[in-house]
Amino acid sequence: xxxxxxxxxxxxxxxxxxxxxxxxxxxxxxxxxxxxxxxxxxxxxxxxxxxxxxxxxxxxxxxxxxxxxxxxxxxxxxxxxxxxxxxxxxxxxxxxxxxxxxxxxxxxxxxxxxxxxxxxxxxxxxxxxxxxxxxxxxxxxxxxxxxxxxxxxxxxxxxxxxxxxxxxxxxxxxxxxxxxxxxxxxxxxxxxxxxxxxxxxxxxxxxxxxxxxxxxxxxxxxxxxxxxxxxxxxx
Length: 235
Description:
Layout: E1 3-7, H1 11-23, E2 27-31, H2 34-44, E3 48-52, H3 60-69, E4 78-82, H4 87-95, E5 100-103, H5 108-129, E6 134-137, E7 140-143, E8 148-151, E9 154-156, H6 160-171, E10 177-178, H7 179-186, H8 196-209, E11 219-222, E12 226-229
Parallel strand pairs: 1-2, 1-3, 3-4, 4-5
Antiparallel strand pairs: 6-7, 7-8, 8-9, 10-12, 11-12
Helix pairs in contact: 2-3, 6-8
């Protein structure tokens, strides 16, 4: 079905995940090392990566950040797992570019459902990226096919979620999107996050594209509703 890379330093958890994923028909590659996980991600080109937060150096958050900053692995969905289920860990994982987050302990059925959901989202969004057009506004150029963003002539690194969020807003200048609409379009209904995640990602996109993030030119807040991309930006 899919090739899945699992990175977890707890061998019993690693074997449990491997057993259940193989039972679902997936090909599973495992490692207990973050560095080895980064190497395997490049070599094996998995369809999905399951990554433990609490790895020894580099930890899972750093591994996720490096996966997202590398063009070869930037679009691979990452599902993070952790024995620490607090909100800060979850938010940090999402900010680093994770697609989903599961606190330990989790049931095999939940893991299977999350994996299926992540793979389904990836399958559904591929056709939207296989176009050859660019979106331009002011000093921003978003290349949909190449998954690249230039700001004032400089290439800026974006996580997949940040890229998709910016693409949706830029594709409909002047249109107001509610947080719920953006949550649905970027994360999907089956993704277990709330609307605060949208605000976090908007803040990070603004930091990358706005000359003054505190007084945004491009992404405007519509108080009590959501966000829109400005129609009137000079080139």
